[in-house]
Amino acid sequence: MKNFLIILYILSSVSAVHSGTAAVPASAATPATTTIMVFGDSLSAGYGLSQDAGWVSLLKKRLQTQSPVHLINNSISGETAVGGRNRIEEALKIHRPDIVIIELGGNDGLRGASIESIRDNLEAIIEACQRNKATVLLAGMQLPPNYGIAYTQKFQDIYPQLAKRHRLKLVPFLLDGFGDKREFFQSDGIHPNADAQQRIVENVWKVLRTMLKSQQEVAHGGT
Questions:
Q1: Which of 15, 76, 91, 138 has fewest C-beta within 10 Å?
Q2: What DSSP state is assigned to residue 140?
Q3: Using CA atoms, how far apart are residues 147 and 32, in angstroms rounded to an integer?
Q4: Distance from C-alpha of 83 to C-alpha of 24, rounded to nearest angstrom
């Protein structure tokens, strides 16, 4: 009787394969989605721009060809590093991102906050992401020269220092290539205009594309 049941099981399995009804592993049937969360301030929230003109929206359109990738913009105009520190845990719990693009600290610097507080709050955000198994892409910022050489240099150094300490991917300067060109900014001289947004996408994409490739390789077992 036992041998009969074994033979029957084998025959039913073979029949399922030939009829095309054999079960397909979930990982093969539905590729794992990579979720990216942008966690930033007005530069990422699209301040002063139409809804679809901001760099995050433009990046989202590019990622539509990188299926399956899901992009969430969790940026708030006026956000500071301490504000981000206070809300990061809830954002991670709700969205469960695989990659977090942290774009914060600029408002702290413009307000003359202490370098130590900016660094500590950014580091707390980074560590929260890492505890939740999210890979971090840190976007570096710089301040106008009128804040003084010593302060602006120390502020700029925060980002590569944190990237090195926590082994993060880094965009050295989010506004690289146009940060000193007035024609790429709105009337306030702080927020990039619509013409600058694609440049920001390219600065981020240089680093993000390698991260996505690594994520996809892991999802496919390194093949």
A1: 15
A2: P
A3: 46
A4: 45
Whether the CB-CB separation of 34 and 216 falls below 8 Å is answered with yes
Catalytic residues: 42, 188, 191
Query: How far is residue 157's CA from residue 49's CA, in Å, rounded to a whole number?
Result: 30
Q: d(Cα 145, Cα 19) in Å, to the nearest integer?
A: 71
DSSP annotation of 115 = H
pTM of structure: 0.84
Closest by alpha carbon to 174, among 105, 128, 76?
105
Rounded CA-CA distance 85/88 in Å is: 6
182 exposed, middle or buried (CB, 10 Å; 0-12, 13-18, 19+)? Answer: exposed
Check if the beta carbon of residue 171 is closer than 8 Å to that of residue 137. Answer: yes
pLDDT tens for 173-194 read 999 999 999 999 999 999 999 9
Q: Looking up tokens 């590019």, which residue turns up?
A: 62
The SS3 of residue 137 is strand
H or E stretch at 40: strand 34-40
